[in-house]
């Protein structure tokens, strides 16, 4: 078994929304596995392999931040856009706004440990992709800007962060409840997916993802 690659990510704000909150956004106390995978793929991804997140370590104290934002209630669909081009009434965000509350996190930092798993039929060794990822992290390169749960909360990344607060982190033990692991998409290409959850908890500041969640085809 190879040693997993590690990368530190941090930012001013983050929001990893609990799925049971329908209107108002309330963040988990820690980054979710799907959000961590999104950060890794933003830095480096190829169709020949996939990321398996092993653990997420909290590097700074958990601090909450409340914000009230103007958001639209519905999305502008393709059909509405076509009708607007034909001179019919279009979508106007100013007429569809509402104020929504978000309980997010501030001053966050995490360490992500993950495995590179080569897909069946690929002849390349996983070490090749691990080395490419580590080089990109050292250079600060990414394919797209990684973010912390919401696109308006960009993430910085690197081999390490300037400072940590380890003495505090030893006391973080939280039962997080059911956390979203991934979506099992339908094979028909419709884009519909069935959410899959797992019982999550922070133990001494570390969220560990059970290996059993990854099937043979994951």
Automatic annotation (TrEMBL):
InterPro entries: CRISPR-assoc_prot_Cas5, CRISPR-assoc_prot_Cas5_N, CRISPR-assoc_prot_Cas5d. It comes from Dictyobacter aurantiacus. Keywords: Antiviral defense, Endonuclease, Hydrolase, Nuclease, RNA-binding. Its EC number is 3.1.-.-. CRISPR (clustered regularly interspaced short palindromic repeat) is an adaptive immune system that provides protection against mobile genetic elements (viruses, transposable elements and conjugative plasmids). CRISPR clusters contain spacers, sequences complementary to antecedent mobile elements, and target invading nucleic acids. CRISPR clusters are transcribed and processed into CRISPR RNA (crRNA). It holds the Pfam family Cas_Cas5d. Belongs to the CRISPR-associated protein Cas5 family. Subtype I-C/Dvulg subfamily. This is pre-crRNA processing endonuclease. The keyword Phosphoprotein does not apply. NCBIfam families: cas_Cas5d, CRISPR_cas5. It is an enzyme of class 3 (hydrolase). The keyword Transferase does not apply. Coiled coil: none annotated. GO terms for molecular function: endonuclease activity; hydrolase activity; RNA binding. GO terms for biological process: defense response to virus; maintenance of CRISPR repeat elements.
